[in-house]
Amino acid sequence: MVKDLQQKILKLKRERGVCILAHSYMPEDICEIADFSGDSYALAIKAKTVPQNTVVMCGVRFMAETVKMLSPHKKVILSNPSAGCPMAEQFGKDYILQLKREYPDHAVVAYVNTTAELKTVADVCVTSSSAVKICKAIPQKNIIFIPDINLGTFVKNNVPEKNFILVNGGCPVHSGITKEEASAVKNARPNALFLVHPECSPEVVALADFVGSTAGIMDFAQKSGAEEFIIGTENAIVEHLQYKCPHKKFYPLSKELICRDMKITTLPDVLNCVMGTGGEEIVLKESVRAAAVGCIEKMIEYGG
Ligand code: 13P
Ligand code: SF4
Question: How far is the CA of 15 from the centre of ligand 1 (A)?
């Protein structure tokens, strides 16, 4: 059944010239039919170069908006209109403008998990895989980092030469994990390496053997000589790694590490998008797109 649906999507996307991009939090059956799957940074880079005129973004809204900003003449479809990212919606533009007025010599560095509107007031964007590198590279010594306080703390600890103002936002999925839970899983799996996404709290990050983006975690686990891993990010990564490395063992840090928004998209949704009858076409006001794209272009310039 799944295979039939996948074959249908693959055939239709070839016939209709549709590119399917999938974030690594998508389930295995969707990643299998994607032209490309990866972390937010890799998807942004890919979005600039895909040859097709229609792109279906299997992920959440800010990811589809990023594709649209970089490829304004393409038709960009979000796989399921309900797929948002709660962190991206946490702050409005006015709050950040107020901070900018209070701290005029600070650069606003925005995690890419932000709305298009918020990106219009950011100087540069970062992703979890590029944040440290970019904060080191930008000329400004003073940084307002939005919206994730956990990623911000991770960056601050790794870029001690700069000054950071952090705001109190974050991912409800990752930030809910406590250090007690993490210690308990580590104690139960003494031979496993602990791999963590920097959206987890600093106390959990402090217990990690490796901290990285979704793609970074997958890469580390595949290349590592170790046999067992505790995966401190969305549980789709456990599924992908188990497919890729059947002889290794992967344990979820918590059964609660499930992003509801990343689970909304199904294979039938993707089929409807490819047929042109589903998903949501991303439309951005040109004034917003033009004001927001600069910080993404800068991210690609510094992060490459
Ligand atoms: P990545 O930057 O690792 O792709 O993560 C995106 C995300 O939403 C993590 O929760
Ligand atoms: Fe947003 Fe968290 Fe879901 Fe990532 S895991 S998309 S940051 S809510």
Answer: 31
**DSSP string for 70-127:** H-TTSEEEES-TT---GGGGSS-HHHHHHHHHH-TT-EEEEESSS-HHHHTT-SEEE-
Q: Of the bound ligands, which one is closest to the alpha carbon of residue 176?
A: 2
Contact (CB, 8 A) for 217 and 210? yes
Ligand 2 pocket: which of 80, 87, 91, 114 to mutate (most atoms <8 Å of CB)? 87
The predicted structure's pLDDT at residue 184: 98
* Cα–Cα distance for residue pair 154/171, rounded to 1 Å: 14
Ligand 2 in reach of 113 Cβ (< 6 A): yes
Q: Which residues contact 3 (CB under 8 A, 6 or more apart)?
A: none
- With a 6 Å cutoff on the Cβ, whether 261 touches ligand 2 is yes
Q: Give the start-end residues of each E strand in 175-276.
A: 193-196, 210-211, 228-232, 249-252
Give ligand 1 pocket residues (Cβ under 6 A): 39-40, 113, 127-129, 171, 199, 213-214
- Does the predicted model carry a pTM greater than 0.90? yes
Distance 286 CA to ligand 2 centre (A): 27
The span from the CA of 253 to the CA of 176, in Å, is: 12
User: Which residue, 227, 250, 230, is CA-closest to 240?
Assistant: 250
User: What pLDDT is attached to residue 41?
Assistant: 81
CA distance 302 to 269: 35
Average pLDDT over residues 197-201: 98
Degrees (nearest 5) of the Cα angle 190, 191, 194?
A: 80
Q: Looking at residue 14, what is its pLDDT? A: 96
Structural Rg of the chain based on CA atoms? 19
